Amino acid sequence: MAEAAPKTNLLGMSRASLERYFSALGERPFRARQLLQWIYQRGITDFALMTDLSGALRERLTEIAEIRPPEILSEQVSADGTIKWLLTLPGGSAVETVFIPEPERATLCISSQVGCMLNCTFCSTAMQGFSRNLSAAEIIGQVWLADQRTGDRRISNVVFMGMGEPLLNLDQVGPSLDLLRDDLAYGLAARRVTVSTSGVVPGIDALHEFPPIALAVSLHAPDDELRARLVPLNRKYPIAELLAACKRYLKGCGTKQSITFEYTMIDGVNDAPELARRLRRLLADIPSKINLIPFNPFPGTPFRCSTSENMLRFQEILRDGGLIATVRRTRGDDIDAACGQLAGKVLSGNQRRSLVQQQLARQALA
Ligand code: SAH
After folding, report:
1. Pocket test residue of 123, 133, 160, 261 for ligand 1, highest count of atoms within 8 A of CB
2. What is the span of the domain harbouring residue 39?
């Protein structure tokens, strides 16, 4: 007997590609609208239950297609209510997704790659090396699974701040952005979907092809020399080029948007008052919010978090200059779910990375 052809996973397909899929089947394109609502609004994956599709179409889809999210390997709940899921992927790798409930919103932090290739010296994901890009099904599947498991607490915000660099996987992140914004899928407002980048300039420019979202940029230092030690990608895209791309993005959005600049506070490395003053000058002419992130330690790192005193002084200097600066509250650190602690399991990642990584981090401290 001939082997059955593999089924097409419809999870992660944007409205436009589902329309093309149904047209190719000889079906009316509006079937895409029905399917989106079944999958994302009602959480149904069994075609047999999709009662507004004809019986013949339901049978055909069951034969040739599927709606398959990744599988959950483990779920950990923090004392503060943060939930971290480890998701298994074909081949044995795993990525992490974190749900952060707060009184006024509930944020889901999702991964875009298995590992990361950017080697930021203060990030534990970097130590895992890089294995591969996640597919759109694996990216939006994180939202789908979390939505199933969080009951009454609806996800109000999604941030691409988990493992990986989203702008190095725009082919798959793009359709996920479409679905997060699409009224027939998750219908989130632009300001409720944040893509965080370590500064991939061509990726920022390519974002114009997708629906508007909020952009966060991992800055971490106000000058090229220090930034290159923390974020090696700065050698390719220095600060001036990065900020020029940010301005182009804001201009393209047309609305009154601002960019969030993330700045991880590392003791004795990037937390001196003089650096706050430089940062203030650097961002003076760009609508921005600065998010100061307390450094989260992980095994093997020589870095430590800035003292609260230094963080507050840094924040004050920025505020005195009229900038909006907040200190991000650390969440879920008892289950290693805080920023930069997501490690997952990167099977084909280059293990030697971790030694190189530690050495780079020591150099950055020196
Ligand atoms: N690759 C993307 C998104 C993932 S990281 C990016 O770089 O923006 C999300 C944020 O956490 C980034 O600002 C990152 O620099 C920061 N981060 C990484 N490691 C950290 C750590 N150990 N402590 C605190 N923040 C960290």
Report:
1. 123
2. 8-66
> Which of 3, 66, 96, 274 is the catalytic position?
96
Residue 316 belongs to some domain of the structure = yes
Task: Name which residue sits closest to atom 1 of ligand 1, judged by CA.
Answer: 165
What CATH number did the domain enclosing 16 receive?
Answer: 1.10.150.530
Whether residue 162 is found in the same domain as residue 19? no
Residues 50 and 24 grouped into a single domain: yes
* pTM, rounded to two decimals: 0.93
96 is catalytic: yes
Tens of pLDDT, residues 309-356: 999 999 999 999 999 999 988 777 777 776 666 666 676 544 445 555
66 is catalytic: no
Total domain count, the chain: 2
Residues 27 and 85 in one domain: no
Question: Which of 110, 122, 270 has the most ligand 1 atoms within 8 A of CB, as the residue to mutate?
Answer: 122
Can you list the alpha helix ranges (DSSP code H) found in the chain? 15-24, 31-36, 55-64, 124-127, 136-149, 170-181, 201-206, 224-230, 239-253, 273-282, 308-320, 353-365
pLDDT tens per residue across span 23-60: 999 999 999 999 999 999 999 999 999 999 999 999 99
Domain boundary among 66, 93, 110: 66
CA 340 / ligand 1 centre spacing (Å): 5
Contact 323, 280 (CB under 8 A): yes
Contact 71, 322 (CB under 8 A): no
- At residue 217, the 3 state secondary structure works out as strand
Whether residue 305 has its Cβ less than 6 Å from ligand 1: no
Asked if 267 and 292 sit in the same domain, the reply is: yes
